[in-house]
Amino acid sequence: MAQNDCINIVEIYKTEAGSVSQCNKTNTYILEYSGVATSFKASDFVDFTKRVNAIDIESMIFSSSPVNDVVVLMPPYSDRCFVLTLSDTLNLKHLLAGAKFGLHLNSVLWECLQPRLFSI
Asked: I need a labelling partner for 95 at 20 to 30 A (CA). Which of 1, 15, 20, 73 fits?
C-alpha cells in the first residue's frame, strides 16, 4: 500500500532519522526511515517493533567479529529489507520507542476524556 492511498494521515512521532504515521482510513502504520516509506498493518507493526527491540546492541558494540556490525531485518508481509548498522539500529529503536509512547499517551488521554456512561 502506498502512502498516497491515505487521505487522513496522522503523524505519531518524528525524528531526524524518520517518522511514524498512522492512516485512519486504512488502519495502517507508515514508517518512513532512510527516505523510504513502509506500510504495516497494526499487528505487523507491533511484530516489527518487537524484532527491532530484540536486537542485542551490546553484542554489536563489543563483538570483534565483522558479522555483528550489521543486522538484517525483513518485516513480514513487506517487500522491504532493513540493513542496519549500529547507529541505524539505535535511531530506529529511538523512533519506534517514541511512536509507542505517543500511541500509548493518546490512548490514555482518550480513555480519560471519554464520558463515563454508567457513572453515578
From this structure: 1
